[in-house]
Design goal:
Blueprint: E1 2-5, E2 8-20, E3 48-53, E4 57-63, E5 72-82, H1 84-91, E6 97-99, H2 101-108, E7 124-125, E8 136-139, E9 153-156
Antiparallel strand pairs: 1-2, 1-7, 2-5, 2-9, 3-4, 4-5, 5-6, 8-9
The protein binds a DNA duplex (12 and 12 nucleotides) through strand 3, strand 4 and helix 2.
DNA sequence: CAGGTGATTACG
DNA sequence: GTAATCACCTGC
């Protein structure tokens, strides 16, 4: 995925994501009522949902599934493949692998003003290569206190399984 | 390991 | 109104 924000282009190859559902998923921000914060989760697939976590971290999700049936994928980790200088300036430290949703949000330069935009006309774009499904495995989601047994965290085995042309 | 930080929610 | 809860990161 790639962002073009403040005149800077940053790309990451995804290595870790988590899925969140709608009303039937107690851990989801869409488990309760629709509010101004979580409204993008009801949007069409490809909508971006960005929220502020712990008052500090902007975390990014891509909405999936049908419109009005909330569901989203939280971006948890990725390898920086383009714009590493920009990422290191934003993060204030050397960065190769950004692991953790707050770090990813900061690396990509996202904030609340990007919530509700879409991958076809917003600052964040999706593009391949997407790798093979065999290189991913699933575990339980982390950092949550409800539905902790649902195995909807997906991780790439190891970054050497990524297409070598995408690695730095 | 603990603390920062602020929106959102649950309760009256 | 107030209090508790967070899909987290950093530095000790």
């Amino acid at each position: 995925m790639t962002t073009h924000i403040d005149g800077h282009r940053v790309s990451i190859q995804l290595t870790e994501v988590e899925a969140y559902g709608g009303n039937s998923d107690p851990a989801s921000h869409a488990s309760g009522s629709r509010t101004s914060r979580n409204a993008p989760m009801w949007g069409p697939p490809g909508t971006l949902y960005v929220y502020l976590s712990y008052g500090i971290h902007w975390c990014a999700n891509i909405v999936v599934g049908r419109e009005n049936e909330p569901g989203a994928v939280l971006i948890r980790g990725g390898v920086v493949t383009e714009g590493r200088g920009t990422v290191e300036r934003r993060r204030g430290r050397p960065v190769h692998l950004a692991d953790g949703p707050g770090k990813i949000g900061q690396a990509l330069g996202l904030n609340g003003s990007d919530s509700g935009t879409t991958v076809w006309d917003g600052p964040l774009a999706l593009r391949g290569p997407f790798g093979s499904v065999e290189s991913w495995y699933s575990t339980v989601r982390i950092g949550i206190s409800k539905a902790i047994d649902v195995p909807w965290r997906f991780v790439v085995e190891d970054s050497s399984a990524l297409p070598s042309s995408t690695l730095p």
